[in-house]
Design goal:
By secondary structure, this protein is an alpha/beta fold. It contains 10 helices and 14 strands. The chain is globular and about 50 Å long. The termini are far apart. Bound molecules: zinc ion. Zinc ion binds next to helix 6.
Length: about 350
C-alpha cells in the first residue's frame, strides 16, 4: 500500500572548488581508458583502496556504488541560515572535523543492474568542480561497464554535481543508449526563465551557473527524456520517491527485490558528519529549506524505524549503512565492509 512519498506500508556553502568560472556543463566526463589514465590515484593504486566502486547485492539486483570524488564543504557556509559560525564550528569539532578547514564532501552515483537493465542514478560533477571530482566515468570503467551499456539514467534532480557527467569529452551526450528519467516537476522548475531560488542560501554569483547547468542538461537530453512522476516505478523494483525541498522535483529511489530493499536518499543530506545529529539545520543549497528539512526528517524517521538500508549521493564512501534514531536526532551506522568471499 502506498503512503506518503511512495514508501510502502511495510517499508514504512559553499562548494570550495566550484567557482563562477566553472564550466556550465563539463566537457570531461564519460570515456574509458582515457578517463582512467587521467585519474592519478587509480594509476597509483590499482587496488581496492581508491578503486572508487563498491558492489553489493540487494536481492536479485547487483548494485555498485560509484564515487565521483570529493569536494571541500565549509560547514559555516552550508549551515549559515540556521547556525552562527561559532555553532557551525562547534558542530564540526563535535564531528571530529579539522578545525578551520573545509570538510570533505563526498559525491556518489549508483549503478543498478537487473540482468536486463543497467540503471545509473546521477552522473557526478563532470569537469565543473575541479580535479577532485569527475571520476565517476573512470570508476564505471573500472567496474567493467561501458557507457553504451547504460540503459537508463535517473537524475534525482538537476543540480550540477548530478548532471555534469551527462556530457562526453567532445560535448555530446555521454551515455548513447540511455533514456533519461527526471520528474515532470523537476523538468518544469528548471525550464522556467527564472527558477525561484529566493529561499535558498546559494550565493547570488552561483545561481546563474546552477540554472544554466540544469537548463543545458535538459536541452542535451531532450530527445531521450522520459519524465516519470514521483511514486511511480522506472522498472519493476525501482521506484522514485517524492522528496521535495532540496529542489521541487527532487526524488529518492527505492529498490526492492523480494524481502530486500535499499533507499537511495539522494541529497537529503550534504554533510552527514554534522547533519545526522542536527537534522533541523537548513542547507544553503536547498531551494526550500523548510520543506527540505521536513522531508529529511520524514525519511530519516521512517528509515530508522523500518531499519532500512540506505545509500546516498553525499554519504561517505562506500555510502552504505543504516540510521539510528537517538533523542530527536539520528546516528549513521555504516555497513561493515564486505570482502569478496
Ligand atoms: Zn548533490
Amino acid at each position: 500500500m502506498l503512503v506518503q512519498n511512495g514508501f510502502t506500508r511495510r517499508d514504512m556553502f559553499r562548494f570550495g572548488a566550484m567557482t563562477a568560472a566553472a564550466t556550465l556543463l563539463p566537457t570531461r566526463a564519460f570515456s574509458d581508458d582515457a578517463a582512467v589514465a587521467a585519474t592519478p590515484d587509480l594509476q597509483r593504486t590499482g587496488d581496492l583502496q581508491g578503486a572508487g566502486f563498491y558492489r553489493y547485492k540487494v536481492g536479485d539486483f547487483d548494485v555498485t556504488l560509484l564515487s565521483d570524488g570529493f569536494f571541500p564543504m565549509d560547514p559555516a557556509g552550508l549551515f549559515a541560515q540556521s547556525a552562527s559560525a561559532d555553532q557551525a564550528a562547534a558542530a564540526a569539532k563535535d564531528a571530529f572535523l579539522q578545525e578551520n578547514q573545509p570538510a570533505t564532501g563526498h559525491v556518489n552515483g549508483l549503478l543498478i543492474q537487473s540482468g536486463r537493465d543497467n540503471i545509473l542514478i546521477d552522473t557526478g560533477c563532470g569537469s565543473g568542480f575541479g580535479p577532485t571530482t569527475g571520476k565517476l566515468a573512470a570508476r564505471l570503467a573500472l567496474a567493467g561497464i561501458t557507457p553504451g551499456e547504460i540503459t537508463a539514467i535517473i537524475l534525482t534532480h538537476l543540480h550540477p554535481d548530478h548532471v555534469g557527467g551527462l556530457v562526453s569529452p567532445i560535448g555530446e551526450f555521454a551515455l548513447p543508449n540511455a533514456k533519461v528519467i527526471v520528474t515532470p516537476t523537476e523538468k518544469a522548475f528548471w525550464s522556467q526563465p527564472a527558477p525561484d531560488l529566493s529561499k535558498s542560501g546559494v550565493p547570488d554569483g552561483m545561481r546563474p551557473m546552477m540554472i544554466a547547468a540544469a537548463s543545458q542538461s535538459l536541452q542535451l537530453t531532450a530527445e531521450r527524456l522520459q519524465p516519470i512522476e514521483a511514486g511511480r516505478s522506472v522498472v519493476a523494483g525501482v521506484k522514485l520517491l517524492d522528496a521535495p525541498g532540496h529542489t521541487p522535483g527532487h526524488v529518492a529511489v527505492h529498490l526492492e527485490s523480494g524481502p530486500h530493499e535499499l533507499v537511495y536518499i539522494s541529497d537529503l543530506l550534504h554533510l552527514p558528519q554534522v547533519q545526522f545529529s542536527r537534522p533541523d539545520w537548513h542547507v544553503a543549497f536547498d531551494a526550500d529549506p523548510v520543506q527540505a528539512t521536513a522531508t529529511r526528517k520524514l525519511f530519516l524517521d521512517r528509515i530508522a524505524s523500518n531499519r532500512t538500508l540506505i545509500a546516498g549521493s553525499h554519504l561517505p564512501f562506500p555510502a552504505l549503512g543504516h540510521v539510528r534514531a537517538r533523542g530527536g536526532a539520528y546516528e549513521w551506522v555504516p555497513a561493515t565492509w564486505q570482502w569478496p568471499a
